[in-house]
Design a protein that fits this description.
2 copies of one chain form a homodimer.
Chain A lengths: L23 E6 L11 E6 L4 E6 L7 H9 L8 E9 L5 H19 L6 E8 L6 H14 L5 H7 L8 E9 L2 E10 L12 E6 L5 H14 L4 E2 L9 E6 L12 H19 L7 E9 L2 H13 L1 H8 L5 H10 L10 E4 L2 E5 L2 E2 L5 H8 L3 E7 L5 E8 L3 H9 L3
Parallel strand pairs in A: 4-5, 8-10, 9-16, 11-15
Antiparallel strand pairs in A: 1-2, 2-4, 3-10, 6-7, 7-8, 11-16, 12-13, 12-15, 13-14
Subunit structure (chains A, B): Heterotetramer of two alpha and two beta chains.
Catalytic activity (chains A, B): L-glutamate + acetyl-CoA = N-acetyl-L-glutamate + CoA + H(+); N(2)-acetyl-L-ornithine + L-glutamate = N-acetyl-L-glutamate + L-ornithine
GO molecular function (chains A, B): L-glutamate N-acetyltransferase activity; L-glutamate N-acetyltransferase activity, acting on acetyl-L-ornithine as donor
């Protein structure tokens, strides 16, 4: 197993204060699924009146847990719901046995928590292809239910970590119709996929009251602008799961586009950025901002090609203002592009325009900029109004070390 | 500039003996484009009666040279042709100035060699975004023409190297209608793209007589099964160029599918494999063989996802039989896949089948296999007859070192 890495240099200084969400209770436990001497299971209990929305990996080899969540997500949670998550074993590619593990865990939680099995959502994260010792999880379910208390989100964030170097949380409190609405979320993930310990998992809770279809619509759309805009290594997990539960104990939200949705978007973007900041071996946080594309889809292709290019990411690691590699990535992106209309910027520094290096650009200016820990690579294609932004990190020796040097 | 790396551990022992091709003369020179103390320009002169076919990068930011070659490739070379190639500077993303460099080089070669400008093909490989000092190249054109001799392919292979650690050549001699036909080729490339020194360049010569449309058809189709099936880092060069010239001084080939085409395919595959074997930092040569896909296109998606996955490639570097990462890559490939029909093999060792690890598989067997320098990862999707094979190398600390640790 990979030894616990030192805290990422890009990590926030402290875990944020997360508000209690009325209608939500949490508990964590050490079930010994794989790790010893730490918690590895978390349970969230959601009171009756809750609505739940979800977004899941599209991987063709996604885990039994993901398939089970997908099947359940459209159902009604008026009688309450539960989310149980274990770290240490992903229950992915474990054949029919994996389906059985999910069934037994759901049954145990349903019985202990007094909800129906159809309202129990599970996630598993960790090693692929080994049988999930679900009996160790079901053994602690009774205690988890008994110990569940409001708050306790920071402990939950710790229990779901695998190769993460810091627990991830974010919250916003907004006023809607003169009343306070709270949003608090936790995430794990050290890349879109971590070594053996695959997976990004995100759980967000709010006390707002929102009908399930509206909740799902907001979640899906905001995902496309937050979690679907980050990449560490371009590899996609078999288990990525994002669940959003609204307990319905505060104001009712009935429309798109208000203060609540804005705050939810902020929480999601904050958590997404924290996942990048914990990218394996990361030393730089990079925003890739593409404008002037023929379409938004083209802008996305260009941003993705840059953010996933090993040559761009190693140049960033080496603090090398190697804009030729950005030209290369634009070229390979399959988006409409014209060499003679292309502009490239490092932060506010114009590097290249009209198909060549800018007359005022100096390598010293570029090299000085690249020494920063937070970078913005700007590309304007000069063709239209299409725009997209993605976030990524650099590709360093530590990434190779984490993924190659240690046997899993 | 990146210091010359030590010879790849995957390199062939020696440069092969390449036969002389009647109707072809070659010369190399040290023009000092960027490198000192080595040759950096090669010229190939092709006698009247030659036909030329070509395949080029599809990058939207491809170089002036590539655009010029594309415009010329359909023309008639009955009056003879020339190919001139420099290393050290790619003339890519050099704006309108790059077009001027190509024009001046073509004019100089045309005058000295007595061919029309429309029959001069140029390639440039090396740093992106710096003005090509074409006057240094045109200054040596007279000597190159004067010194051109039959043979001399090994010197030419040396002159076009950038970050390559060994020159690349391959040849076949086949009998067609009782007469000998010779094929000889050279290549450079240390990945689909090397650091700043972008580009894969390939020049293949034969004394066969073949009409241009047939030559182009063979080249395009064989490219899809050879050079388009290799990847080092998934990044695409702005300058990739493959030219095939048939001097017409031996037997005429009028049909597809014979001994000549088979031999040409072997030369192309050999050169393609040599490029992978010189992949930056490579220590393992990996064949990814996908079968049982719903379509050939799906098989290709799966092979590409595996061959380009940083997590698979770092696992190979670490000699870790981490088949969970192969499952992940299958899942993210966007090809039709069914967990419960998937079979994975390392060489002859069955690792996983029916959605889980194979009952007889042991980690020791897998770990032992991964210690080999040449690996075959086999994936059968169990759905249909679609198949594809790709070749790649591992992702090591040396790749990061070459691309991040040295300023270009």
């Amino acid at each position: 197993m990979t030894p616990m890495a030192t805290r990422s240099p890009l990590a926030p200084d402290t875990f944020p204060d997360l508000p209690e969400i009325a209608g939500l209770r949490l508990a964590s436990a050490a079930a010994g699924v794989r790790y010893q001497g730490r918690t590895d299971v978390m349970l969230a209990l959601l009171d009756p009146g809750t609505t739940v929305a979800g977004v899941f990996t599209r991987s063709a080899t996604r885990s039994s847990n993901v398939r089970d969540c997908e099947a359940k997500i459209g159902g009604d949670s008026a009688g309450g719901a539960a989310i149980i998550v274990n770290s240490g074993n992903s229950n992915a590619f474990t054949g029919k046995a994996g389906d059985g593990s999910v069934t037994r865990i759901c049954a145990a939680v349903a019985e202990a928590a007094g909800v129906t099995e159809a309202r129990v959502f599970t996630s598993s994260t960790g090693v692929i292809g080994e049988r999930l010792p679900d009996e160790r999880i079901t053994a602690v379910v009774g205690d988890l239910v008994a110990n569940a208390v409001p708050g306790a989100l920071e402990d939950a964030a710790g229990a779901i970590m695998t190769t993460d170097t810091f627990p991830k949380g974010s919250a916003r409190v907004v006023e809607v119709d003169g009343q306070e609405v709270r949003i608090a979320g936790i995430a794990k993930g050290s890349g879109m996929i971590a070594p053996d310990m695959a997976t990004m998992l995100v759980y967000i809770f709010t006390d707002a009251k929102i009908a399930r279809p509206l909740l799902q619509e907001m979640l899906s759309e905001l995902s496309d602008r937050t979690f679907n805009c980050i990449t560490v290594d371009g590899d996609t997990s078999t288990s990525d799961t994002l669940l959003l539960a609204a307990t319905g104990q505060s104001v009712e939200i009935t429309e798109r586009g208000g203060a609540f949705e804005a705050a939810l978007g902020e929480v999601m973007l904050d958590l997404a950025h924290q996942v990048v900041r914990d990218g394996e071996g990361a030393t730089k946080f990079v925003e890739v901002a593409v404008t002037g594309a023929a379409t938004d889809a083209d802008a996305r292709k260009v941003a993705s090609a840059i953010a996933n290019s090993p040559l761009v990411k190693t140049a960033v690691a080496g603090e090398d203002p190697n804009w030729g590699r950005i030209v290369m990535a634009v070229g390979k992106s399959d988006a409409e592009a014209d060499r003679d209309r292309l502009t490239i910027r490092f932060g506010d520094i114009e590097v290249a325009r009209e198909g060549w290096v800018s007359p005022d650009y100096t390598e010293d200016a570029g090299a000085g900029y690249m020494k920063q820990q937070e970078l913005v690579i700007g590309v304007d294609l000069g063709l239209g109004d299409g725009a997209a932004t993605m976030w990524t990190c650099d590709l360093t020796h530590a990434y190779i070390q984490i993924n190659a040097d240690y046997r899993s």
